[in-house]
């Protein structure tokens, strides 16, 4: 509706810096302005909308959300009464994706963007105050992005193995008392990206890059000393840091070069070119291809089970003695990328079909082996949705309908990308796996009190949930709200133990491998890997551990002195052995165009392989017995 209430205009008129405007300028901005209201959790505007609005917040509380390339959202700042919303986002020029969501019921004035920018051009005092505020916000944003480094960079195994000292270049020093002209000559002589600025004791005091130098020359500051124009707070890297720890600075923060420190002294520098040798891998090339694929049909060709380059890459990693649980994490991370791109494609499709953008915030979660980051090539879908609490909104039915269609499209897209439907129906398209945060919390508490043998399997899958797209805070809140409840659920833990005992480790009392069927095979997942996973999960639940990954759970259990270091190391070794067998078996099946399965034909193994398998199975059996005894002590509850 057209804004006509004098008191609403007065609130705006009396708010600094609008007090700096002339009457004419104020009228230009507010002419035809509208009063709008948004309910809690509604979006004022979403990243996928074509037009970004400019609002003045009269009442309520809203938050700014930055959308990262790995599918995660995080809140950059809050907007309070009297704040201007949208201008910083417009000035970002599409380089970053933002949304703004109401955290309380909000009342805003919609302003005319073109008139606002024109007034900024004409009124210098007003413009300076507005831009100063934006500068502060952008600095906060920069610091937040720096703190939350891109997790995708850590998924490249070569980067895990390479420390920066192996790829750094010799540093070129210059005194902070030198002139800009001398620095320019020095850069020309050595043809480097930047110089390391040091004091008389050769301590690092700053850096000077080609960009800094050009800025000084353009500004006519050639007669100044380096100390007046250098970057006094440069990024630094410890010589023993891993490459993946540093790469994100170059990719995300547009840093030119970084000094490498050893015992407080500069021993080298890193440039973007330093990482070229590490980035020349099929995995990174395929990852980039996924992010730039805009149809499900094309994405299918990049799926792990369909792409020969990816299969070869995994095989090379195993042949280089990479831990199999690290390889499984890489496969899971790759599958995460496929999932995220399917979601992005579906979001675009929803908009094109007239459904618009998501009406409330949400988080897409994966569960089971993908949630634990322990996938092989043989896997199906285990996923769900956490919706921001929406029951109080008038368009409740519209919200439910949107996410029903959205989830169905995502699940269908994932089928096409090589992820079969879950035989147990654990998928976001099913209503029981698509709930608001409040409903999820209630459901988990019900599971703890009332679950039966049939439902316990669903809870086992759910336990390992992990967010991969959307508002990750919803998943974190769900984990925080339910960890204590699950930890105290002794009956639930007993049922979890009984469920895992449905499958015994295929090792008889004499230590011999027991096979099944005419093929004389062992199911590596059900009969071995899951016995370790399930046992560790039970210990993790009993001790309030929130991490979903088995190896990381084992590490925490050792730190808490719940498990002996020897048992932890044995369990990790067994996981490595069993996962190696499983992934290699899957690769063999893919190469022979056989159906993927977890059945390992024992007769095809060499004598040494059988011995190794038997050792891993004995460790799995011991862990199963340990967890059974641990839970059995509580049978009287």
From TrEMBL:
Pfam families: CBS, cNMP_binding, DUF294, DUF294_C. PANTHER family: CBS DOMAIN-CONTAINING PROTEIN (PTHR43080:SF2), CBS DOMAIN-CONTAINING PROTEIN CBSX3, MITOCHONDRIAL (PTHR43080). Residues 167-224 form the CBS domain. It comes from the Bacteria. Residues 17-120 form the Cyclic nucleotide-binding domain. The keyword Metal-binding does not apply. One of its GO terms (molecular function) is [protein-PII] uridylyltransferase activity. This is Signal transduction protein. It comes from Anaerobacillus alkalilacustris. Keywords: Activator, CBS domain.
